[in-house]
Amino acid sequence: MVTARAPATSANLGSGFDTFGVALSHPADTVSVERAAETTIEVSGAGAQYIPTDPDKNVVGAVAEALDAPAHIHIDKGVRPSSGLGSSAASAAAAAVALNELYDRGYSAHDLVPVAAEGEAVVSGEAHADNVAPSLLGGFTVVRSDDGATSVDADLPLVACLPEVVVSTRDARRVVPDTLSMADHVETVGNAATLTAGMCRSDPELVGRGMDDPVVTPARAELITGYADVREAALAAGATGVTVSGAGPSVLAVPEPGCRRAVAAAMVEAFADAGVGARAYQTEVGRGATVL
Ligand SMILES: Nc1ncnc2c1ncn2[C@@H]1O[C@H](COP(=O)(O)OP(=O)(O)O)[C@@H](O)[C@H]1O
Ligand SMILES: N[C@@H](CCOP(=O)(O)O)C(=O)O
Fold this sequence. Notes:
Elements: E1 2-11, E2 20-35, E3 40-45, H1 59-66, E4 71-77, H2 87-102, H3 109-124, H4 132-137, E5 140-143, E6 149-152, E7 157-163, H5 169-174, H6 182-201, H7 204-210, H8 216-221, H9 227-236, E8 239-244, E9 251-255, H10 260-273, E10 278-284, E11 290-291
Parallel strand pairs: 3-4
Antiparallel strand pairs: 1-2, 1-11, 2-4, 2-5, 5-6, 7-9, 7-10, 8-9
Bound molecules: adenosine-5'-diphosphate and the ligand N[C@@H](CCOP(=O)(O)O)C(=O)O.
Ligand LJ64HWYM is lined by residues 11-12, 18, 84-86, 130-131, 169, 172-173, 246-247.
């Protein structure tokens, strides 16, 4: 048996819609695999009751198929599904790493990005890699449709606050505007470049400033009860930037050094004031998937 762990991720980071992603040190999914004639799937942990065990409907089934690696697969969910924290991607990345080891395929983490993205296609209809890339490679990642993923390590505290509201990725994609103005384009490019420089320098001030996004985030914020107040509360408690994590409903904040606990508490309290239960992960930029 081979077991692998792959971390939760936060995609977009505001200005990098469908492009940027970051690995969180926790939470994570753990996937164990054993050789079998046909793929079967078992799921335990956070939100297991909402996750299909049919290999045609679970992301890990598509990964096993792509690697021609049938197995009995046990997924222990640490990342709640439909959280905006790359739940399905964490399973896909962990399965890709574990099956690669089990069948001795010899692929690198970079090679496994398109393989795990095939798993994501089961959920979203398209093989997008902005969650699986950071889950496999760790750190901050940039994906482009035609040439894979670039990654850079960063040392940065983060808070991911997960409210008890449901936002499906499909719904959150429907509200994304089809077009943007040249002024918004210029602002977004400036923000994205600032964020990238901030990640390369592990500078929370630059990263927070670069998370601003005039196009996608305002449309999606409407789907998250209490978002505006949670954002204000996090900024007042010492966050340098706040945005919707992935397609939501989680909210991601970058705290100033020494402010992570206060930012987490302020976000949970602001959600509570809006009548929404929430939990906050006090986390940081983390490593990619590993065999345990
Ligand atoms: N192994 C898996 N882990 C989590 N969700 C899965 C898995 N396989 C299929 N799904 C389905 O994917 C959807 C959640 O995926 P997604 O929207 O990507 O979550 P998140 O917002 O956390 O990234 C749910 O409908 C869930 O049933
Ligand atoms: N770029 C995608 C990312 C979705 O992330 P998830 O964690 O919510 O699945 C999007 O913004 O739609």
